[in-house]
Input
Amino acid sequence: MKRTIWIFIAVFAVAWAGCRKEKSISDVVSKTLSACRVIDEFSDSSFVPRRVVCIDANQDHFYCTDYSAGYFVLDKDFNLIKRVGIVGQGPADFLGSAHFYMQNDSLYIWNDGKQAIQLFVNDKHEKQIAMPKGLSFSPNTRFFVENQQIYHSVRGDTLPVVAFDENSIKKTYLCRFTSQDDVNFKLHSARHIIKAKNGFYVIGSALPIFQKYDFDGKLLETYNMEKLPEIRQQLQWMKSQEKVPNAHFTMCQDVFYDEGKLFLLAATNIHQDYWCNTVYVFDVAENIEHIATLKLGSGRAYGSFCVKSDTLLAHNMMDASLDVYNIKSSK
Output
């Protein structure tokens, strides 16, 4: 009898702990934000670029790529400080500046046309890092650097993430394919790779993949993205559409990590009606927990963003503006 009671208590405790971990939909904060500032022109009379692929914050500055010509830097009040890089074939020149990763005073930026990473230190060009040969790198996803190793998403038959040194010689394949991956649709397997405090997150660009790994590639946690309403609706719509090997829809446009929280910008295209202004917020300090859904109400389609404390800075693709949101405000 006593043994039966203890078994019951143990089962109840496990079930109760599981309930504590998982918030119900009604517990998730949901709010629509209005931009507190919209920037479409800078003090030098130049306009915000039509294509800003990546944004990040470093101390009191915001860094943004201008796909047509390098990157530019804003101060904490979003005033233009400087532009770095020009179009060209030279060692420090760009043929499409895309995603980048900042580490202290170093900026690693993907040069699309050269299929290489340009390293800038204190905004001065240091060197060009060639990508390892024979690999198909995903061009529109975030990557990071840890212990002088560059972690990047690849599309192929090996594993979905590769880590390589700045000499592009030593490389290690990491992470796992999932049941969502299909060898016949390799372009669909692109992933954002986001560094966090004790590991990194792998988030599918076109597939509902959300995983946490340590820096050695050991899987620590998996999150079911079908819990997210827009993702679930988009997946249901996509099941009714024919898959094409050389094209895919980007459901996760961008992701960002800040102070124990991960932010995911989701897109939908149901019945060809495109929207990309929903940001899911996750508390990832311990486990992956969806805590808030933010609707960026001043724009229909955003392409990149970053978060610094209570400020969210996002590039409005349709209006060619940088929209500033206070994520603590509500409506």
Q: What stands out?
A: The CA atoms of residues 83 and 225 lie 38 Å apart. Residues 1-21 have pLDDT under 50 and may be disordered. The radius of gyration is 21 Å. The first strand starts at residue 29 and ends at 33.
